[in-house]
Model the fold of this input.
Amino acid sequence: MKSLIIAFAMYSKLPMPRVDWEKKALSWALCWFPLVGVVIGLVLWGWMALAEFLHMGPALFAAIALLIPIALSGGIHLDGFCDTCDALSSHQTREKKLEILKDSHTGAFAIICCVLCLLVFFSCWCEVEAAGSTVLVLALGPALSRSLSGLFAVTLPNARGTGLLATFTGPMDTARARGVLVIWVVACAAAMLWLSPLTGGAALLGAGLACLYYRIMSFRQFGGVTGDLAGFFLQTCELAMVLAVVLVQKVVAVL
Done:
């Protein structure tokens, strides 16, 4: 139970009771990370269902759909996205990029990339046809992105060996944690495909491309992963899933 509380206290803004961050509890906290995505997905599903029932306009629908994951997570992953964009845009050495990730100041490139990311994400939500089984596929997106993010965290090497990510991955039984997170990934992917082979498959394709980019970029630019990079991946993965669903829906409509 302590592991569950720690996961929600760290990765969400939902009120949680205070518990001691003991080594044993920390060792399983990351395995509950996808459950945070399940809760966010439930709220997102509720909003999509309400918006469809009330025939909500695309702009308001998209704005709230974009806001829900950011608000419930406290913006922690968007913060990592911004820090990573600053580091990538510096074109410095690997060591200097890792220093930039630790810098609490926000640079111009972080702001530019954040605005562009939110603008594209907002546009995707405006275009998506959130109805029928597609609603449930999209609602599973936050759970899948967190499952993948957690899996990468316990699979890929830590670029610094220290930091917030190491706090969670250091005490854990890596093999067991990896097994739990693989189950989360498989369960989310299977559910998406079962709900809708078309839009579910599109979402998985988008997530897969985000995974491929993350794996290549993190090793080439940083030599591994960090907490900020994990946040960067989560944001790009969720954007890629919604964008892929939109593109498939548009292609089908044309055909």
In short: The two ends are 50 Å apart (CA to CA). The mean pLDDT is 89.
